[in-house]
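quick one, 310 residues, struct below
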Amino acid sequence: MYSFIVNPNSRSGEGRNVWNRLRSIMESQGISYQYFLTEYVGHATVLARRISAAGTPEDPVTLVTVGGDGTIYEVLTGIIDLSSVVFGFIPVGSGNDFCRSMGLPFDPFEALRSILENRRTIFMDVPVLHLGSHSYRFGISAGIGYDAAICQEVLITPSKKFLNRLHMGKLIYLMVALKQFLFLTPSPVTITLDGNKPQTFSRTWFAAVMNQKYEGGGFKFCPNASPEDGLLDVIVIEGISKLKMLFCLPSALWGKHTRIRGVHILQCRNVHITSAHSLPVHKDGESGGIQREFSVTIEKKPLKIIMPVL
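---
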């Protein structure tokens, strides 16, 4: 049986419409399934904990998330034992960085077909963000500074719902990115990789710990990142003028920014990041509040992901 966690509010309510159509398809095929609609922030974590409790490594449950990238971290955080779950994802969001990086279908109906066939799986590394006394798993990235400031403001911007309904969700990210670009002040950031000697980067725009190649709705910040290599990729952009940033960010859409001086790509198994000033933090594009430091590790057990047939 398939267990679905559905965010009906993803893409400003489009999630509910898509889910109703997905249900009709499964009903017509006689598919055995159960589903749960999220009702509040953090509900997906509660639901994932309840569903995953029924699985074992020998007999895992198939848990499918229907929503945007931000729903992923909630579901991952709730899974009790990663080896007791086979994970599927049906995208109904505006960013779609998880699908873009993993090579999953962007179309929700094609994604459902791939999941029901379940003919190919891979094991994905699952990073853990340690933030104060709390820990959160994530699938894509966690970061501090400019990228997190954009995520945080987009979540509270009233025009997001309106633009999403018009399928112009990326426009709000562009508007907020320009605003934050004008007003954000870079901060010194100290990064410690695998417990080695700390490295300090002056005037840091942002630092992001990546499990995937893409974040921010299509920016290929870590072109060589792989969710299967047991490593975290860390991007730091520092010491770059605003004029230079105007060239750096667009080039990141194609992963060409790595040639620019001031762009650093690092690899590690665990990382600790400290900022001289309190800055916004995000996990999979969802707000982690205003923080000065956090660390990221990788779970010992990977997660089995349902993939489309090559």
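Residues 126 and 299 are 6 Å apart (CA to CA).
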